[in-house]
Amino acid sequence: MRKLLAHLALAALSGWSLACATSNSSTTRAVSQAELAVSEAATSEAAALAPEDLQLARSKLAQAEQAARSGNQERARRLAEQALVDAQLAEVKAESEAARLSAREVETRIDGFQRTLIVR
């Protein structure tokens, strides 16, 4: 009976250890992905064209890293996922703004060409 209880306790402990390891690795993966996304956004036009969203991503990433250091894996993972999405949003907003600015420039050139043709 003691042997059976020992085996059950060992199995339960192994399962708990595996769950913690899985939780830690998913948190580490989420933080790493967020770090990469924030870094990519920072080197894109997001710093100039979507600075608020980029700053929000950086802030959430810092909070995620702090939560991970404090052992709060679930909070760290959640914040890292939010940082990832905020960084991606910053890049998309920057791309959209850059496209809008390019379109405006093209429209201005077309208007200039049309005026030149009308004058002739």
Describe the fold and architecture.
This protein is mostly helical and 120 residues long. The radius of gyration is 25 Å and the shape is rod-shaped. Residues 14-22 have low confidence and may be disordered. It has one domain (2-119). Helix 1 (2-43) runs parallel beside helix 4 (73-119). The protein contains four helices and no strands.
Overall 3D geometry?
rod-shaped
Helix content: over 70%
Content of β-strand: under 5%
Total of domains:
1
Whole-number radius of gyration?
25 Å
Strand tally is: 0
Any chance you could write out the topology, listing elements then pairs?
Blueprint: H1 2-43, H2 46-49, H3 51-69, H4 73-119
Short recap of the structure:
With 120 residues, the protein is mainly alpha-helical. The protein has helices at residues 2-43, 46-49, 51-69, 73-119.
Task: Name the features.
120 residues, single chain, mainly alpha, 4 helices
